[in-house]
Specification:
alpha+beta; Tumour Suppressor Smad4; six-stranded antiparallel beta sheet; 6 helices; 16 strands
Length: about 280
């Protein structure tokens, strides 16, 4: 079974979904499911049975798809319909022949780690929600332009206190996103490491830390206003003074279908960031 996730507010995404549906049926695939990428609950009805998930949108759509499909080990094939598109494999004007190759089994799978975050409140209550992220988890100052103080513990040992706008915990995938914007290193996508990097640190450690996938990261925020936790830039949780955010490697992996050469990442990086000019 093949699933197609389209972007709900991009008409061109929905029309392309219909075009891909017709193509797949012409190739003999008759078990096809359509869903908006923003309707996770509906997609969960059929995702456990999917052999391939085709996403039509930008990186945000693929981030949503990864969180939805990773628990079921569903491989994803992204068609770029956004601006940068670091994660997508196909272009909207050149997808037929690559998709035909995928259907014939001529592809390779790229696995990327994810991280999992939970909140432990200062009143002793543990959040019932856990959030998986493919890009990053960010504990930041919230709406007010005031610094937040964040204590960082690694595997139960105290490391340092940051005075900053926030702290980014990033996967290798996220190293080309927010982490890159604040001066972090670029990690190859299959690297099983986690980055911790501060945002606008003031008289605090200003270097990125590269950790192993199995490290437990604890961040405790202190501020005279509510801080904010964001997951892949899509979930927002209010963090009160003294709350702890715990981040660990997720048991799930995101799986991307690739038809390009295995060296594609560095070439795509230079092209998309225009560093070759």
């Amino acid at each position: 079974m093949i699933g197609i996730l389209h972007h709900p507010i991009k008409p061109e995404s929905q029309s392309l979904a219909q075009e891909i549906d017709r193509f797949l049926r012409a190739q003999g695939e008759d078990n096809i499911q359509h869903e908006s990428a923003w309707e996770a609950e509906a997609a969960l009805q059929w995702l456990p049975h999917a052999d391939l998930l085709i996403t039509l949108g930008g990186d945000g759509t693929l981030l949503r798809a990864a969180r939805m499909g990773a628990p079921f080990e569903v491989p994803m094939l992204g068609v770029k319909m956004g601006r940068l598109g670091f994660l997508a494999e196909l272009m909207p004007d050149n997808w037929r022949e690559p998709l035909r190759r995928v259907l014939a089994g001529d592809y390779w799978l790229e696995e990327r780690i994810m991280v999992r975050a939970r909140v432990e409140h200062s009143n002793g209550k543990r959040s019932t929600h856990e959030f998986d992220a493919l890009n990053d988890v960010v504990l930041s100052r919230g709406d007010l332009a005031r610094v937040v103080r964040i204590d960082l513990q690694l595997d139960g040992g105290y490391l340092t206190r940051y005075t900053c706008d926030g702290l980014i915990v990033s996967t290798a995938t996220g190293s080309t996103g927010y982490a890159l914007a604040v001066g972090g290193p670029i990690l190859p996508p299959d690297l099983r490491n986690i980055l911790v990097i501060p945002i606008a640190p003031h008289l605090s450690m200003d270097r990125a830390i590269v950790l192993s996938e199995g490290t437990e990261i604890r961040m405790r925020a202190y501020a005279d206003h509510a801080a904010m936790l964001t997951v892949d830039g899509q979930f927002v949780v209010a963090i009160e003074d003294g709350d702890e955010v715990v981040v660990e490697g997720s048991p799930h992996k995101a799986r991307f279908v690739r038809v390009r050469e295995r060296s594609y990442f560095y070439q795509a990086l230079m092209e998309k960031l225009r560093w070759t000019e």
